[in-house]
Amino acid sequence: MTMRTPRSRSILRASTLAAALLLATTTLTACGSSGPGGSDDDSIDVWVYQDASTKVQRAVVERFNKTSKVKAKLTEVPGEGYSDKMRTSMGTPNAPDVFFNWGGGSISDFVKEDMLVDLGPSFKKDPELQKAFIPSILKAGAVNNTYYGIPMRGMQPVILFYNKKVFQDAGAQPPKSWDDLLGLINTFKKKGVTPFALAGTDPWTELMWVEYLVDRYGGAEVFKRIQSGDASGWDDPAVLKTAETIKELVDRGTFGKNYKSVNYTADGASTLFAKGKAAMHLMGSWEYANQKANQPDFAKSGLGWTTFPAIPDGNGDPKNVVGNPTNYWSVNAKTKGKKRDAAIEFVKFAAKQDYSKDLIANGDVPATSDATSLLGKHENPTYAQFQYDMVREAPSFTLSWDQALSAKNTPALHTNIQKLFNGQLSPTGFVTAMQKDIK
Fold first, then answer.
1. What letter does residue 310 receive in the DSSP assignment?
2. How far is Cα 371 from Cα 369, in angstroms, rounded to an integer?
3. What are the chain's domains?
4. Residue 394 CA to its chain's centroid (Å)
5. What are the start-end ranges of the E strands in 66-170?
6. Which single residue of 125, 169, 189, 194 could bond 278 by disulfide (Cβ 3.0 to 4.6 Å)?
7. Which residues pair with 397 in a beta bridge?
8. H helices within 174-236, ranges in order?
9. What is the residue range of the signal peptide feature (predicted)?
């Protein structure tokens, strides 16, 4: 199973200040050989983020090339250089015809410059294509309510994981309500167990708490306003209430005393959780793969999962989900003629069942609407079905804020959230800082 590295969210969106150096030191075979403006009309360049899941894209290129006169050439871009390479290549003759992205803020600048193909007409021409994907996933990849992406990898919702043995020893049950969660904090503290593992050195892990709480208090519309550029969204009562709740949770000892020095990237928080030092862990769905790789016995029999609970008097739908909906294929607007036709046909292959089967064989959960019958082939069918149902039933799937907002906002976003958790910003100070820094 492919672990979704936590930094497929921020490290990959590093500042473009390093782009020139990356371009000078990174050599990619086939890059730009037949991209927009190129003379080779018999092929399209397809760029993908290089990791263990890339084998799924290799297989679809082979299938596509058996049916198309215009051939697809796959370029696997090394992970940490991908975001910068993508940004600095778009608009040049070396740009890809089709490329992997995270939707939202990762392509918003391209949309502003009319660099991407609006896929809406393709959906109108082929209604079954739109129906092929879970609606909340498809919407999460849109920009200004316009579709520029086709889902092409597995779903990555944020899930509330729990340690079955720790719960059994305490005679406790997974939380079904916010009151249950608060009660469990007291239960586990009395047992000498940290209620929630938290990797405080990696602020994106703390962001997950903020995302869910804002959603549960105010609904998905609060962040949608912020994402659309309406800075008044930070004034929404849900944001202040979230900041106050974070402070209350920290003061209660929810995350223990040492969370500020715990990491995720070196498996710190996950190990504490697996070893029973912490009872619960709010984390992306890749936590299963992480545990399987590093604590396989725990992943097999000790790892439990449930949804984030509703908040009393909250306006958000308790079925809403936050996280990384999936990754997307987008098509370069400079790709014209039969190459554009071929590019659009290529991205449609992600809707086919053989593509979904390859994803499942790789340990992923597809974003297609007809995947239920295939999930029995997943290495952990119960976990796969839980994820799938969770997302399919979600009225809204909010993209991780550090992906949804422009990359320039990520450092301030992470800094302010970490300061809130560390007590360096009061709840009102947090709201003021977000109003000032995130625009």
1. P
2. 6
3. 11-155+326-395 (3.40.190.10), 156-323+406-437 (3.40.190.10)
4. 15
5. 71-78, 98-101, 150-151, 156-163
6. 194
7. 321
8. 178-190, 203-218, 220-227
9. 1-30
